[in-house]
Design a protein that fits this description.
This protein is mostly helical. The chain has helices at 3-23, 28-43, 51-74, 86-109, 116-144. Helix 2 (28-43) runs parallel beside helix 4. The longest helix is centred in the C-terminal third of the chain and has 29 residues, at 116-144. The protein is elongated and about 70 Å long. The chain starts with a helix and ends in a 6-residue tail after the last helix. The relative contact order is 0.17.
Length: 150
């Protein structure tokens, strides 16, 4: 491979990454779906009896529908657990979500605050929606080859 061919290959790779970055733009509704799923999962623990398990199952089913929708619309789905800087956004969202879930359950079971899962879940809707938007931006920056601080 000579220098001209190598330069052409690099340019084709850059063009392909730019095209992928352009396709990796999700609507606010898509980001809100992430927030609603995580927040709904937590808020569901306010319900009595076996209903929290039913809500959790429904959230998991809805997640598979979001993945299928992404594949149908975009032709691909990008896992949040992929390597790169996006992984830190995913882990932060997971850590905050788990802490919120534990807090909601403790406040409900130990202190009798039956409304706590709904209040905490509502906050998580906002947090996870914003986190999803941040995740997309970080992912697109990686595709564009932007340095870490951009």
């Amino acid at each position: 491979m000579d220098q001209v061919e190598a330069a052409r290959s690099l340019e084709m790779m850059r063009t392909a990454r730019e095209a992928l970055a352009e396709r990796a733009k999700w609507s606010f509704a898509r980001h809100a779906a992430v927030g609603l799923l995580l927040g709904g999962l937590i808020a569901g623990y306010a319900l009595p009896g076996p209903l929290p398990v039913i809500v959790a199952t429904a959230c998991m089913a809805a997640t598979t529908m979001v993945v299928a929708r992404d594949r149908r619309r975009d032709g691909f789905f990008v896992s949040g657990y992929r390597s790169g800087r996006t992984r830190w956004v995913t882990f932060a969202m997971l850590l905050v979500g788990m802490a919120a879930l534990v807090g909601a359950i403790v406040l409900k079971k130990r202190y009798g605050l039956t409304w706590a899962p709904v209040a905490i879940g509502s906050g998580i809707v906002v947090f996870a929606t914003i986190s999803s938007i941040v995740w997309e931006r970080v992912y697109r920056q990686e595709l564009d080859g932007a340095p870490h601080g951009r």
